[in-house]
User: Fold this.
Amino acid sequence: MNIWTIMTYELRRLFRSRSMLLNMFLLPMVLIFLLGASLSGVVGVKSATKIEPVRVAVVNPAGEGQSAMIAAFVKLPEIQKVIVPQDVESRQAAESGLRTGKYGYAVIVPDGFDREVQQGGKAQLEFILGKNHTDNLAAGTAFDNFLSTVNYKQAAVAALGPQAMAVEASSSENHEAVKLGDLNNGGRTYTASQFYAASMLLMFLLYSGMTVTNSLFSEKDNHTLHRINSMPVKASELFIGKMLGVGIVSIIQCLAIILLSDWLFGVYWGNRPGLLLLFCLLMIIASMTLSIVVSLFSKTAASARSIISVVTVCMTFISGGMAPLPDSWVNTIGAFTINHWVLQAIVRMMLHSELSQLAPNLLMISVICLVMLCGAIFSYWKVGYHE
Amino acid sequence: MNKILAIAWNMVKRTIASRTGMITYILLPSIVVAAIISVTGGVEGDKPTVLYSNMDTGAAGQHLLAELENTGDYKLVARSDETALREGIIQQEGAAGISIPAQYTAQLAHGQQPELSVYELRASETSILVKMKVNTIAGEILETARTVNAVNGGAGDAEAKLGAILKQAELHNVGSTRTDYDLYPRQTLGVITGLTLMFLMGLVTSTVSLIMDDRKGRTMMRMFSAPVRSYEIALGNFLGSCMVGILQIAVVLTLGKWVLRYDYEVPMYLYFLVLAAFMLVSMGIASTVAGLVRNPGNAGMLNALILTPTCMLGGCFWPISVMPDYMQKAANFVPQKWAIQAVDIAAAGGSWNELWLPFAVLGLMAAVLLAIGSAILRPNEAGISA
Assistant:
């Protein structure tokens, strides 16, 4: 009965705090939105951003060796959207222009470029990279695409004879030769924003440890723990009641994130809602027990809080949830984080994987939870919760 | 002035004079930041892995892979079939996967337009670039196949001819050479600056939480009963946390530059100036929040509420240029964006002609936020405990 009273009071206290509510329900939504909006919109890079045209210094030798092909290419209207060609006298002028930032990119056409191309010989343009990475990429891609078309044409002429030259280029620009593969085994199409939604959910479940710390230390800091201890309440009842309260809030938070992200952003969470909840529950247990151990052994609320936030951010980061990390990392060092196992399981559920593929993850996270639970019980038995 | 300095000095002493203070405020964060710098900087040389499954027996599939290999940007790893490829992508064994369907070359030779599939678990720079690259190559192959069919008119061995042309194209008779004078900043510099900014912002929060503790413990009320003005208390506290922050920046930069030998490509004093300007802004943010929220625990949480989203928006984790247009506009309101821009300009060798803008924006943000923060700090009121 005491446990019940303490738990309801804890719940009431948590739900009355406005910043608590902001942090638990608004922040995850904002983060999922930010991640989804900034990263999943990238699929068509060109349409996502308006590229400023790059000023390209074109060094085209005068007289006989001048390349009419390049001169015509840089005048095409669709190319002029990407680059602003500027005729430059010499290589030196182009180079010094690059260094001062006058040009973003430089293209040096060798003497007799056209002749070599028509005779099937070696013809190489020289590109000099400028100061801006994006500009380099944009200008380089424009010229490279042109060169590769010429290259295939030359190869075709060499193999088929001059009549290959006469074949008109089709308007292949609009035709996508590649489609985005569907990772799914049935069910809805998987999108990249789902991955980030899952990783954010896990980060916030880990953060629920922070609530544990706040709840445990607020009584100590306000010296109300003395008063509670003087009541006919067992210390263990108080402790269990508090943890139950925090646990229930975390479960509500988890449900809110899942449901709201589904309704607002259309994030699909997979075909096994029961198992998803089980994984989340285990995650909550793991993070709560972790912060119980930390809070019991640290002297001040500030140090406990900083340890838990460092652990949370590090684990999310290492498991690849924040910024894309190299893949070799994710499977080696990432495996030491709790996030990794649950994240993988959630992604698999989103993709409708078989139950047998989920079993190892479930086993792993259960073992982690069991170990942490033992640790929490042990540290409570050793240290206890009193002033 | 003396009073301000006394308060500031006291603040510094309280934070870092003890051994634990030294460890928690200076040593630990610097080591974390320095470790991240060295890890991220070291990762740079690694090529991202791209998985593929080639069911095609003809020349076109091989040509596609050869061309990808030729770019030198990716490590290609084979998988036995499409199912294994998908499994590999889900296991995050590669950043992207390419599946070449069976009879790819034969279909091309017969004038059809077979489609390749590219798999990704999440959008990343690699997967986007791979998709673009594969699209270009596949488009060229398609075009070549069309040419072959047009010339042949359906007669003769189109598949063999296509193969011959692709073999010839692999020689890259027409192509380009790149001359690189290392004029542009390295890609990881942005990420490293971003992560440093994130941790710096978190650190500033911790010093501001000391001010909160003062108010909660009613120390500030007592200070106020001495002949000290409200603005002197506010200024002294800012100056104190400013000194601590500058010390933190100095230690982080020293560790990164001279111990781990990371090449920042920026004059150290400039980098220091950028970080210091950013620190002032984040101090302004933290103190504004501290003024708004009276409970220290909640203030810490609210700072987290601001820290992560602004870092994402400001381009700490990925380059701003990959974000959609309206997000890029929104990023202008975030100090991180301007700090990263300043570092970028400096790394590209820009002079103060270009550098003044980000610094001016940062300075303005700092001034406004600090003014608001000191106006609503109100040291004569005790904190309300909730």
